[in-house]
Design a protein that fits this description.
Largest sheet: 5 strands, mixed, barrel
Strand content: 25-35%
Number of strands: 13
Number of helices: 6
Amino acid sequence: QSSFKETLRPVTIRQLNTAHLPHPEADFKIDDVEVTQLTFVGQIRNISTQATNVTYKLDDGTGTIEVKQWVELGAIDQMDTTTTTNGNRAAGSNKLTENEYCRVWGRLKVFGNNKRHVGAHIIRPVTDKMEIMYHLLEATYVHLYFTRGPPELKGESRAGENAYMKSEADDSNVMGGGGRQTTMPSVSNSARRVYQCLKSEPQSNEGLHVQNIAAKLAMAVPEVMKAGDELLTHSMIFTTVDDSTWALLEF
């Protein structure tokens, strides 16, 4: 198989279970696009340990599928797996535990009886629950990209699509997300100031609290709250740890 065909696509388990296989020697297709390597997040429902492999049954809310990780003979005892029945995580931060979430990188495979499974290259536990939601949003974005086409910037026609796609690729993050929003809706001056304040800060999952924004901009807290409501209405920011802490929502 040529290396230029290699891709890494975020998917849901339902997409894996419904993926089309044109013929036994072909790659699977999702949204009529060939899929080679893939990644997804799921909850571990069962762990079955055998002499040469460990089989995980994963569930992401859209379906279930088995994931097999092959190991060298005799190395099974060194793997970080545990099947505690009381839900407690065993010692060690890298344990794969039943009822916990994990991320998988691998390839979709099929047995002779047409039963599908994922041959895993890497499986690691999910330590940040935000990764679960992020993955579902990313898989949705890629699905819409292939089924409805790339988004268009305001004021630009399809003629400028190639330039947009280059910009989107340059701006995409390590996990393969989309490019960033480059136009701002019509909002008040206070909302623009709050938006620029959030944009100029180092980006994190937590964002900035209203009190911090007010102090940085020398604005009254009620004015900042009103500006935030305006930005929330336009889906330009989102709340994080509470209703008064915001972060940028970038596309």
